[in-house]
Amino acid sequence: ELSKRLQNVAEFIPVTTRKFADIGSDHAYLPCYICENNKNTRAIAGEVNQGPHDAALRQVQSAGLQDRIEVRLGDGLGVISPNEVDCVTIAGMGGTLISNILTEQVENLSGVDRLVLQPNIDASSIRMFAKNFQWQIVNEKIFEDDGYIYEILVLEPQESLEKNLTEKEMYLGPILMREKNEAFYKKWEKVLDKKINIIEQMKNAKQIDEEKVAYFSKQTEWIKEEIH
Ligand code: SAM
């Protein structure tokens, strides 16, 4: 049974996808699930580590999907060539690592018309990637699974010049803060409590980092504006 987290990621992979790459695929659960449910889709499961790579191979073989899913060992987008896939998924890592992976071999994203990204933390660094590399955030989702709150960001190549997101939208998510579901409130209540604590501690320190205090205070204001 696929986790609710990965089922949510799967929802954003269009049924018309011919071939997608799942980078950092570990057991290749996502490619196996998609290819089992959608007979016209092929996949590449990319892994930089031997252990997870071998686990992916075993999973693909036991599902009998080796003719449609290729498991490749390599770093990030290095496992795909330009114009080889139409969709790329990266799930279950920090947002900073995800944006580093995308940035390092960004030329291999040519021909890709959708990125489905599920950062465990730091979604804002993915929004920064989008801004810097002309991708548009076409969808966002926040949800709870097994006590944790996750976010998914869906990016497509920017077609026209878009209005720049505000700093606040970059931080909270332009679509998430418009929709404001239960998970959104839950996440930001928690972050707010934490930030307020940290600001207190920073103010009590011998050397006060005024700039950081100001930045954190600004963030708490943004959060309060949206959840109170
Ligand atoms: N994507 C799966 C999921 O969401 O359940 C697995 C997530 S797992 C926590 C992260 C995986 O990413 C690990 O198997 C790790 O080896 C792999 N990984 C980390 N950095 C990578 C990179 N630069 N290129 C490819 N894979 C990477």
From TrEMBL:
Key word Ligase present: no
InterPro entries in alphabetical order: SAM-dependent_MTases_sf, TrmK
One Gene Ontology term from the biological process aspect of the record: methylation
UniProt key word Transferase: yes
Molecular function, one GO term: tRNA (adenine(22)-N1)-methyltransferase activity
Assigned keywords, A-Z: Methyltransferase, Transferase
Pfam name, any one: TrmK
Name of the featured protein: tRNA (Adenine(22)-N(1))-methyltransferase TrmK
